Structure formats: C-alpha cells, structure tokens
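G., the chain you wanted modeled:
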Amino acid sequence: MDLLKDIIYDKIEKNEITVTIAGKNTDIDKIVESTCYKALNEIKSIIENDSLSDEECFLKIEEIIRVFERLECNCGYRHDFS
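Predicted structure as tokens:
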C-alpha cells in the first residue's frame, strides 16, 4: 500500500494528475493549504512565546506535538509522553 501512496503522491506532486473530493466543490490543495496554514500559525505563536523559561522549553515542544495531533498528523512515538 505504501508503494501505491508513493506513486500517487509523486504523480500529484508533478501535476500529472489532479485529485478532487467526490461530491464537494473543494479541491485537495485548498484543504491542505488551509490545514498547513493553521498548523504553522499555531506553531509560530507557540515559538514566539518568550514568557516561558528555558526549563519550560519542553512544554513548547509538547504544545507543537499537540497541534499535529489535533490535525491528526502522526508525529511518531518518540514524542508520545502520555
């Protein structure tokens, strides 16, 4: 299955195929763009928060991981501290 995903992703990346969501007028690029922008905006605000001490830096990383989790993006198990 991963090979199939890689092939499809490669075709999309090279603009050889277009993917649309059936029954909707929204295309996948708009969804991805919107989701990425939201994630980057949240991450930026976390990083810019200078009110935390160096000892609390871990908490910044944890907040960023939670942003990805809310967006249902798997960050692997290295940062799974729950």
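Residues 24-82 form one domain.

Shout if anything looks off.
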